[in-house]
Amino acid sequence: MVYSRLTTHNFLNLKPSWGWLLSLGILFILMGFIGLVMSIGFTIVSIIFFGVLLIVAGISHIIYVFKYKNIKESLWQALIAFLYVLGGCLIIYDPLLGSLLITAFLAGAFVVIGITRIVMAFAFKATAGSGAGGTRVWLFLAGLAGIILGFILLAQWPMSALWFIGLWIAIELLMTGWYYIILALALRNHKT
């Protein structure tokens, strides 16, 4: 009951901004389509952006170093700051290498997560009540999809490093754009 009131209250507060949500959704969809066509460019830009974020994180750690009174703690924070800045500079200097490493890491993570999901699917016991068997099936299928995606990326590596990250971001932009458009239309049609 409380949740429905909070959700309705938050839903009504967004009503005046449905046009902005619709515009943002359309913008995200356009960017997603551009990303589908230019996935290599999206990959490079996102890797460079990631490098910039690492440098910003390193600089914030450097600022934080001066707040420590203990020398040991400040040395550890300085080391972390140095590694962030170094990693960011290396990624900006060679975004292709950064893309290669991140794609290999993601492929390995997909395989490990997929195996974990399959093990979990077999570990769940079918309990009395609806949905237990369906949960196991979906968990198994999600695990299988993760393993397949991981092996596809690894089989096509290093070439997959050129397109995968950009494609992933483009698909995320498309999905987010459609979500914003649906939300905006629901807000516009909501009767107060």
> What coarse outline follows from CA principal-axis ratios?
globular
Q: Sheet with the most strands?
A: none
Which percent range describes the beta-strand content? under 5%
Domain tally: 1
Topology readout:
Blueprint: H1 2-13, H2 18-37, H3 39-65, H4 71-93, H5 95-123, H6 132-155, H7 160-189
Could you walk me through the main structural features you see in this protein, from its secondary elements to its overall organization?
- This protein is mostly helical.
- The chain has one domain (19-189).
- 86% of the residues lie in helices and 0% in strands.
- It has helices at residues 2-13, 18-37, 39-65, 71-93, 95-123, 132-155, 160-189.
- The protein is globular and about 55 Å long.
Task: Name the features.
single chain, 192 residues, mainly alpha, 7 helices, 86% helix, globular
Briefly say what this structure is.
Helix content is 86%, strand content 0%. It has 192 residues and is an all-alpha fold. The chain has one domain (19-189).
